[in-house]
Design brief:
heterodimer, A: 214 residues, mainly alpha, Serine Threonine Protein Phosphatase 5, Tetratricopeptide repeat, two-stranded antiparallel ribbon, 2 strands, 2% strand, B: 346 residues, alpha/beta, 6-stranded mixed β-sheet, 8 helices, 15 strands, globular
C-alpha cells in the first residue's frame, strides 16, 4: 500500500533533491530565461513538504496532496506555482480521501499530475516545456499499467521517459513560456522546467520503485 | 550566473521582498496599507470607494517603483506583489481585489507573462466563486518581444506606467467596468517601448549575474527580467542608440505630424539620471524633427530590473481621451501628479 507516511517521505525527498539542484536549475534558466526557476522549484517543494508535515495524523492522501498544492502555490506564484499546484490537486482527486491506496494504483497519480499540468499550462508536446517530460512519463505509466507490468518496471519506464523527454527539449524551439520570446536562440539548450520535471519524476519513481522491492 | 557574487545591501536574500515591504510601509503608511491577512497585497488608503471599478495591478518584485509605487488615489487601488521576478500567487490578488471592491467590478492589469496569466486567471476563478466579476487587460508594449502582427504575444514593460495611469484615471473618474477596460486596451494599443541593456542584474537569493555581456556590447530589446532580447551590438554613443530605438518605435506608432505623445525615458536600475537626460535630449530632437508634440515627459527609474544597467524609451501616442487620463491627478507613494494650476500648498 501507498500510505500517508510514504507521501510525506517522498515530499521530503523532493524538497531535499530539488533544494540541492536549486543553483543548477537557476543556471539553466539563466541561459534562456530569467534565472529564477531553481528558486521557485526549491521554495515550492520545501513549502509543500512543510505543509504536509504539519497536517494532523488523521489527514488523508487527498488532504496531503491538496495541502502540498496550496503550500507550493502560495510560496511561489510564478509559472511553476499554478502548474504544480494544479498537478497536485488532480493527484489529490485521484488519490481520494483515503489513508492509503494500493501501490498498483500509484502510477495513476502521475497520470493525473500530467493532466493537471497540461490543462493549466495549455501547452502541447514539442513546445519546449515541462509537458515534454510529463506527457511521455504519463504515457509510460498508462502503458505499463495496461500491459500488467510490475510497479518497479513501470517506475523504471517513467524514469526513462522523463529523462529522454527532458533531453529532447534541447532540439526544440520554445513557443510557450518566457523563453518563447527567444525563438531560435533557445535551440540547443535544455528547458529548465523540463529538467526540473525530470528530477521530480526521478525522485518519485525511485522512491515508489524501491518501496515495492523492500 | 557566472563570476563572483554581486554586492548588495540586503540581510537575507530570501527575506528581501518582505523586508522591502516593511520599509515601504514605514515610509508611506499615510498612503498605503498592507492587507491584514495578505501581507503581499498592498492597498491604497485613499481611492477605493463604493461604485468605483477596483484596479488591481501586480507582478514580481524587483521592478520598483512598479508595481507598488503606483498604488494610490487616481491610479491603482491595490497591487499584488510576488517574489523577485515571479508572479504573485492568486491569493494576494484575490485579497487585494476583495479589499478594494466597490461593487463595480475588478480590473486586473499586469504585464503579459505566462506565470502572471496563470496566477491571475486562478484569482479570477476564485473571485467568480465569491460573485465578483474580474476582467483582465494585459500590457504588451515591448516591441522587441514579438513581431508587430503578434502584438498579443508581446511582453509588458515600462509602458505599464502610462497604461496603468490611464486606466487608473478612468476608474477614478467613476467610469464603468466596460469603459475602464476599453480605455485600458486603447492605452495599451497606443504605447510602445524598446530598451537596451548594458550590464546584468542579479537575484538577491543567488547574487549571480543573470546573463553575460561583454565589455563594449549592449543588448537591444532585453526583457526586464534579463530575458535575451533581439540582438547584441557594439555599444555606441547615446544619440546613436536613441536613434535606433526611436526609428523602431516611430515606425510602429505611425503618428502624423502634429500628433501628441507622452515620453518615458526609464532606467533599468543602474543607469543614472544624467544618462537618461542625455538620452531624452535626443528623444526630444527626434520628436521635433518628426513634427510630434511632447505633451508630457517622465524621466527616471520607473520600471526597473533590480540593478541592471540600461534604459528604455516609451512613447504613448496620445489622443484627447488618453491625454485627459494622463493629466488626471494621482497621489501614489512613488508618483504624484497635481492638477495643472493647483497651488503648491504642501
Amino acid at each position: 500500500m501507498l500510505t500517508t507516511g510514504d507521501i510525506a517521505r517522498v515530499f521530503r525527498q523532493l524538497a531535499d533533491t530539488i533544494g540541492a539542484a536549486r543553483d543548477e536549475l537557476c543556471r539553466l534558466d539563466g541561459v534562456i530565461g530569467d534565472a529564477d526557476h531553481g528558486i521557485a522549484m526549491a521554495d515550492g517543494f520545501a513549502a509543500a513538504s512543510r505543509a504536509i508535515d504539519v497536517l494532523p495524523g488523521e489527514a488523508s492522501l487527498a488532504d496531503q496532496l491538496n495541502a502540498a498544492a496550496k503550500g507550493f502555490l502560495n510560496a511561489v506564484g510564478a509559472s511553476s506555482g499554478p502548474l504544480y499546484a494544479t498537478a497536485l490537486m488532480r493527484a489529490a482527486k485521484a488519490a481520494g480521501a483515503r489513508a492509503e491506496m494500493p501501490l498498483t494504483e500509484a502510477p495513476m497519480l502521475i497520470v493525473a499530475m500530467a493532466e493537471g499540468i497540461r490543462s493549466r499550462g495549455k501547452a502541447e508536446q514539442g513546445e519546449k516545456t515541462m509537458v515534454d517530460v510529463w506527457t511521455p512519463a504519463a504515457a509510460a505509466a498508462e502503458q505499463g499499467m495496461a500491459s500488467g507490468l510490475t510497479l518497479p518496471e513501470i517506475m523504471a519506464r517513467i524514469r526513462d521517459a522523463a529523462t529522454v523527454g527532458a533531453e529532447s527539449t534541447k532540439s526544440m524551439v520554445a513557443t510557450k513560456g518566457r523563453s518563447a520570446r527567444l525563438g531560435a536562440r533557445s535551440l540547443g539548450h535544455i528547458d529548465p522546467g523540463a529538467a526540473s520535471a525530470a528530477m521530480v519524476l526521478n525522485v518519485i519513481a525511485d522512491d515508489w520503485g524501491q518501496r515495492v522491492k523492500a | 550566473m557566472q563570476g563572483a557574487m554581486t554586492q548588495k545591501l540586503i540581510n537575507d536574500g530570501n527575506a528581501a521582498v518582505d523586508e522591502m515591504l516593511d520599509g515601504v510601509m514605514a515610509a508611506h503608511g499615510d498612503l498605503l496599507q498592507r492587507h491584514e491577512r495578505a501581507p503581499r497585497a498592498i492597498v491604497a488608503r485613499h481611492g477605493p470607494r463604493p461604485g468605483k471599478v477596483a484596479l488591481v495591478i501586480g507582478g514580481g518584485s524587483g521592478h520598483e517603483p512598479t508595481f507598488l509605487g503606483f498604488v494610490g488615489k487616481g491610479l491603482a487601488d491595490a497591487a499584488a506583489i510576488g517574489n523577485v521576478f515571479a508572479s504573485p500567487p492568486p491569493q494576494p490578488a484575490v485579497d487585494a481585489a476583495l479589499a478594494t471592491y466597490g461593487g463595480a467590478g475588478v480590473l486586473f492589469m499586469y504585464g503579459n507573462y505566462a506565470g502572471d496569466v496563470m496566477n491571475f486567471d486562478m484569482a479570477t476563478e476564485l473571485l467568480e466563486l465569491e460573485g465578483v466579476e474580474a476582467r483582465t487587460v494585459l500590457t504588451t508594449d515591448d516591441i522587441a518581444s514579438a513581431p508587430r502582427d503578434q502584438r498579443e504575444r508581446r511582453r509588458g514593460v515600462a509602458g505599464n506606467v502610462f497604461i496603468f495611469k490611464a486606466a487608473g484615471a478612468a476608474a477614478d473618474l467613476m467610469m464603468s467596468l466596460d469603459e475602464v477596460e476599453r480605455l485600458a486596451r486603447h492605452a495599451n494599443a497606443r504605447t510602445f517601448t524598446l530598451g537596451v541593456a548594458l550590464a546584468p542584474c542579479s537575484l538577491p537569493q543567488t547574487r549571480r549575474a543573470n546573463f553575460d555581456i561583454a565589455a563594449g556590447e549592449m543588448e537591444i530589446g532585453m526583457g526586464i527580467h534579463g530575458e535575451p532580447g533581439m540582438r547584441r551590438e557594439a555599444l555606441r554613443p547615446a544619440d546613436a542608440v536613441v536613434d535606433e530605438i526611436m526609428d523602431a518605435i516611430l515606425a510602429e506608432m505611425g503618428a502624423a505630424k502634429g500628433d501628441r505623445v507622452a515620453v518615458l525615458v526609464n532606467s533599468l536600475g543602474a543607469t543614472p539620471l544624467m544618462e537618461l537626460y542625455i538620452m531624452n535630449r535626443r528623444v526630444a530632437q527626434r520628436l521635433a524633427e518628426a513634427g510630434l508634440i511632447v505633451h508630457r515627459t517622465l524621466v527616471g527609474p520607473l520600471c526597473t530590473s533590480l540593478e541592471m544597467a540600461g534604459a528604455s524609451i516609451t512613447l504613448m501616442h496620445l489622443d484627447d481621451e488618453l491625454q485627459r487620463l494622463l493629466d488626471h491627478p494621482c497621489e501614489c507613494a512613488m508618483y504624484q501628479l497635481r492638477r495643472p494650476g493647483d497651488a503648491d500648498d504642501r
